[in-house]
Specification:
Length: about 240
């Protein structure tokens, strides 16, 4: 399996690279800078493309010039949020127009431009797959006030729906992972059961998201999963 992970340098993206390397033949990681402390299976070839998607057009050209001509799956894990998001200090009225525009460029514009160029590279696969990392903030009545982040994750859901219809005849399986609060402090090197204790049930270990993604990538050709809503067990919003 040949997989590209966009947004792969740390947190969940890094966990995708490490966790999926056990069964992939090739993983192409896209990040502003390739991480130095990543542990992958020796049986998997790991390649890195360094690009800054806050400059969408330039980054898209860099990535498409270096990406393999053929891929089986794309994991799109890119997304940024407001400086004070998910804290009591968040105030939409204090967000600068420059920062709002930057977030839209990274979370929405770059996503559309890059997928436009990359999707043709998966369409020749036996089962082409696109997995988008969304957020429970992108769901109706999410209970979160972060305006620009929520808007961008609502947009991601729309992108997934439209791509699914655009390429249904080409059998492109598009899945949106609507994830709740993650424990990104404990990577794949920490045992899953230990990582699940952080946050006392309010944080999802990255191990669980990797396990779910592995299952998606191993479905038969006859099925796909449209959307997964995956909050933490003790998240009172769900």
């Amino acid at each position: 399996m040949r997989v590209m992970v966009v947004g792969a340098s740390k947190g969940l993206g890094k966990a995708f690279v490490e966790g999926l390397s056990q069964e992939a033949a090739l993983i192409v990681g896209v990040a502003r800078r390739a991480p130095l402390d990543i542990a992958t299976s020796p049986s998997c070839e790991i390649c890195w493309i360094e690009a800054d998607l806050s400059q969408p057009e330039a980054a898209v050209e860099q990535i498409t010039a270096q990406a393999p001509d053929e891929l089986d799956a794309i994991l799109y894990n890119l997304g940024v949020w407001e400086e004070h998001a998910f804290s009591e200090g968040y105030d939409f009225l204090a967000d600068s127009p420059k920062e709002i525009a930057r977030m839209v460029d990274i979370n929405v514009t770059a996503t559309i431009l890059l997928l436009q160029r990359l999707i043709p590279r998966v369409l020749g696969a036996r089962k082409p797959q696109l997995i988008l990392t969304g957020s429970t903030s992108g769901l109706a009545r999410s209970g979160r006030p972060e305006v620009t982040f929520a808007a961008s994750k609502f947009a991601l859901r729309g992108i997934a729906d439209a791509l699914r219809e655009s390429f249904r005849a080409r059998c492109l399986a598009v899945t949106c992972l609507q994830l709740g609060y993650l424990n990104t402090d404990d990577g794949m090197d920490v045992p899953r059961d230990a990582a699940s204790l952080r946050g006392e049930g309010n944080l999802i270990p990255v191990h669980d998201v990797v396990a779910m993604t592995r299952a998606l990538l191993n479905l038969s050709d006859a099925s796909f999963v449209r959307e997964i809503v995956m909050p933490a067990l003790m998240d009172e919003r769900f």
